[in-house]
Amino acid sequence: MNARPVKRSLTLQRHRTSVSLEDAFWQEFRAIATRRGMAINALAAEIDASRDTETGLASAIRLFVLEDLKAQARSSGA
Fold it and tell me: Would you call 35 helix, strand, or coil by DSSP?
């Protein structure tokens, strides 16, 4: 697994953009989208729409992944 961020392309509301994410975050982000039955671009668009204007999209995705993992741990009693 690559620990360095890798640039990945996304389409948000018909606008192409890219984010640099480490493989571990990207894989978990894809897993969350799959679990929710969403396309990864749709989930990224939701995160983009709700993020603070001072927070970059890649950071917002990392924080989203972290919060999702914490919620899963709480619900499993870990």
Answer: helix
- The residue-averaged pLDDT of 45-57 equals 95
How many Cα neighbours within 13 Å face the side chain of 57? 21
Q: Are 58 and 47 in contact (CB under 8 A)?
A: no
Q: Coil, strand, or helix at residue 29?
A: helix
Per-state percent for the chain, helix, strand, coil, to nearest 5: 55, 20, 25
Higher pLDDT, 11 or 2: 11
The phi-psi region of residue 14 (left if phi > 0; otherwise alpha if psi is between -120 and 50; otherwise beta) is: left
> The pTM is what?
0.91
